[in-house]
Write a structure and sequence with these properties.
With about 270 residues, the chain is α/β, with parallel strands linked by helices. About 40% of the residues lie in helices and about 25% in strands. The protein contains 9 helices and 8 strands.
Length: about 270
């Protein structure tokens, strides 16, 4: 079963993922760590932006990080080597066809992956089989419908909607954050707990404005330009107007808010 990545695999997208991970480390990874000798599966590691954070927070945990893309895996391995990470093994694998036995891992970590899958429920059921009884899963996803900003702009909203529609055309769901509880419950996990993680930026928080509003969210929307225009979801003129207005939210009098959802559950 194919799953496509709406943002592409460019060097610019890699930088965006690193900026996102670094800016949101405390917000998303707070309370997530594993103990010595435990085995953790990171499903969908991409270029390793989250992998390095996981490894540093749990240096004595044995981490296996998988991804379908050999290009992304190569980048992840280089990043881990540069960061002198020793407790991670990278492996090319399909999340729908995991090459591991039942109960092979103590825990599973999934971040910004389910939104790109045609069948996230099937993926979660497979991950459940890979976790031992009593083990846990942690899932983090965003929800593009949670983007609130000032100044308001219909043109800016249209560019965001284009990203949502473009991802849907590829079989993904950029609104999946709000679905984590039912998905994990339907997959058979127990004691499912979902916590909203809100990131807010204004000019009094220049680091968040730069790291999230500009380099993460707006950069992500820009990444869907080619597909949005090609699919006739928007004209080039309207796109340019929308991006211009969206950039105003990162200005002196602008504000931006977005909600991620972090779910934990037991097998």
């Amino acid at each position: 079963m194919k799953h496509k990545y709406v943002h592409g695999y460019s060097k610019k997208e890699s930088y965006r993922l690193f900026d996102q991970a670094n800016t949101l480390t405390e917000l998303l990874h707070s309370g997530t760590s594993y103990t010595k000798g435990e085995k953790l599966l990171e499903a969908g590691c991409g270029v390793g932006a989250q992998t390095v954070i996981l490894a540093k927070k749990s240096p004595r945990t044995q981490i296996t990080s998988i991804d379908l893309s050999p290009v992304s895996l190569k980048k992840a391995e280089m990043l881990a080597k540069k960061a002198k990470i020793k407790n991670v093994v990278f492996k090319q694998a399909d999340i729908y066809r995991l090459p591991f036995g039942d109960g092979a891992f103590d825990h599973v970590f999934v971040c910004f992956v389910l939104e790109h899958l045609r069948d996230p429920l099937k993926a979660l059921r497979g991950l459940k089989r890979a976790v031992k009884k009593g083990g846990t899963i942690t899932v983090i996803e965003g929800d593009h419908g949670s983007a609130y900003y000032h100044p308001e702009s219909a043109a800016a909203q249209k560019t965001i909607d284009c990203l949502i529609k473009a991802q849907a055309k590829l079989g993904g769901d950029s609104l999946i954050g709000r679905r984590l509880y039912p998905l994990l419950t339907q997959a058979g996990f127990n004691n499912v707990r979902v916590e909203p993680k809100v990131v807010y930026a204004d000019s009094s928080r220049p680091g968040v404005v730069e790291g999230f509003t500009r380099k993460t969210f707006i950069a992500m929307v820009k990444g869907a330009k080619e597909q949005s225009v090609k699919s006739r979801l928007i004209s080039k003129k309207d796109w340019q107007k929308g991006i211009k207005d969206l950039n105003r939210t990162s200005g002196r009098n602008g504000t931006f808010s977005y909600t991620f959802f972090k779910a934990t559950a037991y097998n």
